[in-house]
Amino acid sequence: MLTLRPEDVRLDCQAPDWRDALEQAAESLHRAGLTAPAYRDGLFQREAQSSTYLGNAIAIPHGTPESREHVLATGVRVLQFPAGVEWHDGQRIHVLVAIAAQSDEHLDILRQLTHVLDDDRVGERLAGAGSAAAVAALLSKAQVEARLDTDTLCLGFPARDARELALAGAARLSQLGCVGGDFMADVAERPLAPLGQGLWLSLGERSVAVPALALATPDERLESGGEAVKGVFCLAAQGDAHRGLLERVLTLLDSGAAAELPSADAATVLARLAGESAAAHTRLARVLNAHGLHARPAKQLVQVAREQGLPIQVRLAEGGGAAVSASSLTKVINLGARRGQQLVFSAEGEGAQQALEAVSRAVADGLGEHVLPFDESRERSMPLADAAPVEPLPDDTPHPGVAASPGLAIAPVFVLQTPRFDYPERAADPAEQQQRLRQAIAEGAAQLEALVQQARGGEVAQILSMHEEMLRDPELFEAAREGIQEGRSAEAAWWVAIETAAHAQEMLADRLLAERAADLRDVGRRVLGVLCEVSLPEPPETPYILVTDDIGPSDVARLDTQRVRGLLTARGGATAHSAILARALGIPAVVGAGERVLTLAGGQELILDGERGRVIPAPSAERRASAEQRLAERQRREAEAWQARFEPAQTRDGHRVEVAANLGNTTHAADAVERGAEGIGLLRTEFLFMAHAREPDLATQIEEYREALDALDGRPLVARTLDVGGDKPLPYWPMPKEDNPFLGLRGIRLSLTRPEVLETQLRALLMAAAPASEAADKPQPLRIMLPMVKDVGEFRAARAIFERLLDEIPAAERATDVQLGVMIEVPSAALLAPVLAAEVDFFSVGTNDLTQYTLAIDRDHPELSAQADGLHPAVLRLIEMTVAAAHAHGKWVGVCGELASDTLAVPVLVGLGVDELSVSARQVPLVKARLREFDLAEARTQAQLALAQATSEAVRDALEAR
User: Labelling 42: which of 35, 542, 627, 912 has CA 20 to 30 A away?
Assistant: First the structure.
């Protein structure tokens, strides 16, 4: 498997645009001896097909299948761009992981990097990393789960003072292997910190293997300095991994529950630390679903919880995990509850007991799935255990799942299902069982070696070689040998060893390590196949739709992804590995469709709809013909939209709505025009500032802005002034660290602290838009908008500079058709739109920021981002207020956020009176085509329908039903 080394990393790269950055990546691969010069064309061709932006400021450029002949050796080169580079899809990147792949090795690199997508600060850290080793560590760093559970509690300890309680907690963490010998000394040397309410905190940072929190309570009343000692927390701190533990302590303090601790049992202590109050009613419920709380049963649970009309919390009974909202699908799924585990539901207030009864009953009934009772004395995680009978999917009937990757596929299925291994649990002759196991391991290694030779090098070979190394791990064999000595058969002892090692990896809650657990099980199944004489399935030679429980690294290593037409999984969500891989490959995917999909017969024809999130097995001739027609219709619509891209953007009855493009780079203006854009509705000028090691001077800015204006050939340019801040700082503009940069010094607030920078930018924009001498009668429309304006005071401060420049610069040397407006991103600006509209020339609604500020949801939050929906009625009402105020003063309103290209949102925005939609250049033809599908009256009806709803989900349901 490829690993990132410091020597693979180039620091402090600079590039004026994405093309130059990609050229540098190609050159780096060539200089390293990984590729021939011609591989460079494959990198550019791949970007032309679709962006290789992965997320969190990382792109993974790699060649096309046709360019693999130019790969000399498999490898990667990492290029760091501290100032950032605007990628061609509008995303900003700080790191390129350039891949030379002889097969589908880039999929494994993608898997290795998915763990960084959970850290929304990793882009900033990558940009600021000062060493190659630091970059490599950030990209491959495994996250560690902090520990707090029954075993870390030391309740009723016979201590003479608080210090002994602290040492008792430290000793407990040492017994559990969380800390080493130096930790005790570290704790002993530090003073105890009083937390209030009789609680104290001791802390140690030396010899911490796993961050953890212990709590020691006295067996009788203790005092320290005249204050009662009800308990001492002992924290094993490590980096940032222990912060969640401190938040749990704060939760306990906020609840005022410290007084309960001296007499509380372990379950009560964990409940209080999880956020459950003493007044809360609780109910236990055991998960009976064969695959645990995957997407479908979790969704059913969330729906039942929402119907109760009061907040319900849920947590796992085992361990010390925090309680989460039972109404949040992402949080419920993230519990990772497996069959047999118990859930603790809690609620307070009138009707709490009835609500808990309802959700508990729903769990017991299977949450929409057929379930069997759980026998704790017999069930275990063994492949020989009988699975609950599953009802097959009916023919020619739609079956729902989670839409994960758009598109439509029609093909036979290949069901990649875990084989069934039947074997005895016990065996009489340990020596014979050990010999059988040794022979099976040797045979498995030989199989892998043959596969390595067939792979003829590349990352697939490296993955299989890693599996071979796993088989030779002496600790695995030793664990199995001990099981054999205890009387188990070779098969049973081997699988217990595999499951134990895999579960230990999964408990670390890191994606990369969880994938290693999948590798371990794959290796384990290979040996079981030899022992039980069961062969592993191989994919067909013809195109197929892959159906599997979930897809992991070893599965991909064995599959020819060129033949996969679609992907269907029983488990997972839209951010699962299967979904990420499907989007990276550009193939349709439906995930989380439940275990019934695994009953599909191999070769059975299937229609997979990645947009609607459903599959139809064995479709009738009529349904198949309809799907083929839809597929052809989709292709036809895209082709027609492209052919009609230069037609005026207007509704069916001729109502004009300008459709412009959002750009992050002036060099893309010509491409936007070629795609039918009627102007640039958002030019992110910060690209220019971030592309330079020092502040760009007046001449540099004029040249850049003029390039876009010339390409537009008289079409309007809407340029946003510098929009940077603590969340995206400039290397030459140092700023103090802010706890919440999104609510700090950014946008116009920051620019007004350095008015000379704002003045230079305004001057450059005005001068760049001066009419050319040979076309003095052809003005270049320029619209300048100010970001993050909260009220008219900030606008007036910037307008004073703007108006002074209009007076200073001769009319012949500056723009003559120019307007100054503001972005509506802050709710206060929308609420004050009547005041602003009297003074500004236009509004441009930035729905991305307006949504996150209105709903108080970070749009990049790993759990909440899906709820940051611009179709939320609160956001729509702010847009309605903005439009009404603007039109009352004869001003126009544009929308430049992602909502402007949302198929459902387009008629709503038009119905609200929006005059301009600015979208990514690739979306321009499709948005124009969408406008031609409805008239103004229908748009107004849809807008009023949306405004009448209570939630964004209700808005989308109502609009889809029309």
Answer: 542
pLDDT tens profile 378-414: 444 333 333 446 788 999 999 987 766 767 899 999 9
Return the H-helix or E-strand segment holding 190: none
- Helix (H, G, I), strand (E, B), or coil: what is residue 672? helix
642: closest CA among 931, 922, 925?
A: 925
How far does CA 716 lie from the centroid of its chain? 35
- The string of pLDDT tens digits covering residues 746-755 is 889 889 988 9
Q: Is 314 helix (H, G, I), strand (E, B) or coil?
A: strand
CB 610 within 8 A of CB 589: yes
- CA atoms of 572 and 589, how far apart (whole Å): 11
Q: Say whether 62 is catalytic.
A: yes
Question: Cα separation of 31 and 48, whole Å?
Answer: 24
Identify the burial level of 634 via C-beta atoms within 10 angstroms of its C-beta, where 0-12 means exposed, 13-18 middle and 19 or more buried.
Answer: middle
In terms of Cα–Cα distance, which of 323, 303, 304, 313 is closest to 361?
304
CB burial string 578-617: b at 16+ within 10 A, e below: bbbbbbbbebbbbbbbbbbbbebeeebbbbbbbeebbbbb
**Which of 294, 467, 668, 872 does the annotation list as catalytic?**
294
370 belongs to the catalytic site = no
Q: Widest CA span of the chain, in angstroms? A: 100
How far is residue 760's CA from residue 78's CA, in Å, rounded to a whole number? 35
SS3 of residue 117 by DSSP: helix
Q: Which residue has the tokens 């509850």?
A: 337
Residue type, 610: G
Poorest-confidence range of 178-187, 535-544, 603-612, 664-673? 535-544
Secondary structure of residue 943 in the 3-state scheme: helix
- The string of pLDDT tens digits covering residues 728-785 is 556 567 666 566 767 878 889 889 988 999 999 999 999 999 987 665 567 889 999 9
- CA-nearest of 735, 709, 918, 910 to 818 is 709
Give the neighbor-by-neighbor strand order of the sheet with 342-347: 281-286, 342-347, 313-316, 324-325
The Cα–Cα gap between 256 and 259 comes to 7
Exposed/middle/buried for 461, CB within 10 Å: 0-12, 13-18, 19+? buried
Angle between helices 698-712 and 755-768 (to 10 degrees): 40
- Rounded Cα distance between 885 and 879, Å, is 10
- Tokens found for residue 334: 């993230």
DSSP 900: G
62, 70, 88, 399: the catalytic one is 62
pTM above 0.90, yes or no: no
Query: How far apart, in Å, are the Cα atoms of 422 and each of 383, 415, 529?
Result: 8, 20, 10
Least confident interval from 15-19, 315-319, 730-734, 833-837: 730-734
CA dihedral 418, 419, 425, 428 (to 10 degrees): -130
The Cα 463–Cα 553 span in angstroms is: 8
Q: What is the pLDDT of residue 501?
A: 74
First-to-last alpha carbon distance for the chain, in angstroms, is 51
Q: Detail the DSSP E strand segments found in 365-436.
A: 399-400, 402-405, 408-416
Query: What is the spatial distance between Cα 140 and Cα 510, in angstroms, rounded to a whole number?
Result: 11
Q: In what order do the strands lie in the sheet with 564-569?
A: 399-400, 614-617, 605-609, 408-416, 544-548, 564-569, 589-591, 402-405
The two beta strands, 75-86 and 9-10, are parallel
Contact 255, 199 (CB under 8 A): no
Residue 735: Cβ-neighbour burial (10 angstroms; 0-12, 13-18, 19+) = middle
| CA pair distance 722, 840, nearest whole angstrom | 18
Phi, psi values for residue 723, rounded to 5°: -125, 80
